Amino acid sequence: MGLVTQTSMRPAEAGQTIPPARGPWIARPAEAFSATALRERLIGSTRSWRDYPPSLRLWFWLVPALTSVIGGVLRFVRLDTPHSLVFDETYYVKDAYSYVVSGYERGWPDKANDSFNAGNPAILLDTPEYVVHPPVGKWMIAGGMWLFGADNPFGWRFAAALTGTLSILLLTLIALKLFRSVPLAAAAGLLLAVDGHHLVMSRTSLLDIFLMFWLLAAFGALLLDRDDGRRRLAARLGRLAAASRNARPAASQLLAGPWLGIRWWRLAAGVCMGLAIGTKWSGLFFLAGFGVLTVLWDLNARRVAGIRGWVSGGIIKDGLPAFVSMVPVAAVVYTATWTGWFRSEGAYFRRWAQSNPSAEWGWLPDSLRSLAHYHLEAYKFHQGLGSEHPYEASAWSWLVMGRPTSFFYQKPEQGVPGCDVPNCASAILSVGNPMIWWGAAISLVVLLFWWAGRRDWRAGAILAGVGAGYLPWFLYPERTMFFFYAVSFEPFLVLALVYCLGLVLGRDTDPLWRRRSGVYLVALFVAGAVLLSAFFYPVWTAETIPYQEWRYRMWMPSWI
């Protein structure tokens, strides 16, 4: 009968239209190692967006644009409310203004917030300020202040609102790539657009929204690299097979497989990871998690392609280049983000090396030794950060929103605009939409079973994003933590929820009644989430409402 090769039997992706089977499940070597057959095994029947009818192509761009516009309206309308620094804006906004003026953090006099809120930020001291977070997020805030001024809240928060809006666009495109379903991509973008936790972080100039954006961008780049690498593998093995007499690569060529060349999307992911780590060091966990994920994708690609030494070959020809493409690139980008500190004369610890000569490390440039000392001191600070805070929240409570952070709360007096009753409230609470967050928490369990039982790589990719952002916090149980840290992996929670909505939606091959029921249920869930967001919107955006209305929205005692 001759040699035969079994084709891949990968599970259908959530919400994907499954084409009818074409031909037998087994193929002769002459067919199995053609470029077309290899591409079919490695990336399925994926087509370029250009191959779709113009009417469908329009939705590929219209849906991401519409979800972004909705998210942008929610984030930019009344962005200057409240007209004062809220919560940790007192640190990051003022640091960003220091960047605009001098390129590094400088100190502030007592009661500087009053002057800053009054539109007079030019009261910087000449002394440097010691800070424990890298510069990227603060430089992004500074960009908004440079465009719209440092004397108004819109300027302070513009970068956060723009970044939050762009992250909705990114997530919609990523969902379209993952699920190959326009309705599911629309659901992903819309759910992130209306979620309160993401909304609050997009309307407040803290660092975490910028961290989330660069992590999401890195994930999107790795998704593009996955398909690009598999196309290259199919093309190169196909050329080897075409040049062979028996229409299959030689045994020596299948031992480890070909080199795939420079992976430009992986380099882009390394740049994004460097910017993420340059925003907050917690991005290091994503660098490790995403690095392992992309190598596993490559190992599996070589296995499916029929390469015998797919483990060793993949580690040498994919794993090592992946490390070089991501880790050193991220390190170089991270170091470059400290350019303002390097160019300064008076930044904190800038001249530490000159005052502390070292026989052991003296070969290093003084600027790098000073920066290394700065990082060591910042690491010690983070390790010892365990002071009590009224809104600290254990990582165990994050998925159920056990203790969201209150960014702002005031009791306006009767007679002020919006307050027509004796008791009113104006608040910003970083609580998410309960339907989205609690639904996502349940979805993670479903994804675990789908990944372990069905070997669906999409479920594994989403779980990797959640795990890289969530699990490391359990290593530091004594550290003071806050719920808003969870925004770094919130897009992956939304993807987990949408994955399960895809399971509810069903396939095109299902009976009509099944498809119709799935559409109704998904539409009902998304509509319910939007309506619930409208209910919570006042306590996300500091609207003035009667105190009793505020209490109606405090569903758990720990939210107060």
TrEMBL record:
Pathways per UniProt: Protein modification; protein glycosylation
EC number: 2.4.1.-
GO-annotated cellular components: endomembrane system; plasma membrane
Domain ArnT-like N-terminal: residue ranges: 69-221
Domain Protein O-mannosyl-transferase C-terminal four TM per the UniProt entry, residue ranges: 369-559
Subcellular localization, as worded in the UniProt entry: Cell membrane; Endomembrane system
Region (Disordered): 1-22
GO MF: dolichyl-phosphate-mannose-protein mannosyltransferase activity
Membrane topology annotation: Multi-pass membrane protein
InterPro entries in UniProt: ArnT-like_N, PMT-like, PMT_4TMC
Role summary: Protein O-mannosyltransferase that catalyzes the transfer of a single mannose residue from a polyprenol phospho-mannosyl lipidic donor to the hydroxyl group of selected serine and threonine residues in acceptor proteins.
The protein's name in its UniProt record: Polyprenol-phosphate-mannose--protein mannosyltransferase
Source organism of this protein record: Pseudarthrobacter sulfonivorans
